[in-house]
Write a structure and sequence with these properties.
With about 70 residues, the protein is mainly α. It has one domain. Helix content is about 90%, strand content about 0%. The chain contains two helices and no strands. The radius of gyration is 16 Å and the shape is rod-shaped. The relative contact order is 0.27.
Length: about 70
Amino acid sequence: MESLIWIGALFALVGVVGLGWCILIAWKARREGLDDEAMKVRLQKVVAMNLGALAVSSIGLMMVILGIFFS
């Protein structure tokens, strides 16, 4: 079960990196000074990636908890 902990930690790390990437994309869009409609279109694309990264991170944390529980 130790491998489940490490795999879960890797998933969680990938999810956190994805969340950081979403933050960088949003900051870049804000610095560009886009109008409201262009900003809305840009951020709608980021929302899907943000939810995916959050899901991967959550699954990783669940794997870590299960690995600890079953160890």
